[in-house]
Amino acid sequence: MFAKNYETDFKFKNDVLKRAVSKIYLAKVDGIFPNEEIICDQSISILSKATGIRRIDPDGQDCLSRFTLLYANKQENTSIVCCQIETGRTHQIRVHLQYLGFPICNDTIYNNFVWGPLKGKGGDYGGKSIEQLRIDVVKQHDKKSWISESDPDYAQRLKEIGENDLYEHDQLDLLNLKFDELPSYDPICWNCATYQKRPFPDDHWFMPLHCWKYSGDGWSFESPLPEWAIQHSDLIQNNIQENKKEIHKITA
Prior knowledge:
Blueprint: H1 6-17, E1 22-30, E2 38-40, E3 44-48, E4 53-56, E5 65-73, E6 78-85, H2 92-100, H3 130-140, H4 154-163, E7 209-216, E8 219-222, H5 227-230, H6 233-251
């Protein structure tokens, strides 16, 4: 959201500072979520400053999230839940859903066995110390997840770049090449000192967490349902209407 004038900008910021903004999200999670409102008030702190990854910590920042089931798909073993946060901590929804045992689908950070056999459910990290957990989680998401290794031919290629006006990649139809047909260097950043990026599944960068509605005193913002929820829109809208009184009561 962007304010169009100073007065509105000031009001938005003031509402945020006073925690007077209602923030409601939609998330698709693993598992069949209980058909009742679930409140999570577990505090959160930083696990790794370098990556910004968070964890449950009794001595961390106070947090409060409310979750309500909107749709359950027993065949997929997934659910779509309404997430209302009364605080706005970094990764709050993702960490709280992980703690409850319903991590967000395709969340490569928090829906991961690096957190232990239960993926961090209930703060159970499989007996790991916090320091070991930090090491393992950071290692799981270091640069080797994105690139193969340093390119030993980088210096020679850089020299060739300087000596030639026509670069090799200008003659390649990169869009129509298969992955194993691409040049050894990254075609997006072809003069980098690293090999090309590793191939990832098509949905690797997609996580079904959607900002649905923000509202404050005298203003509101609501976005359309995302694609992963549209196919169940009738049922979701019915459940939203059924829960609307409760949602308004919570935000009042």
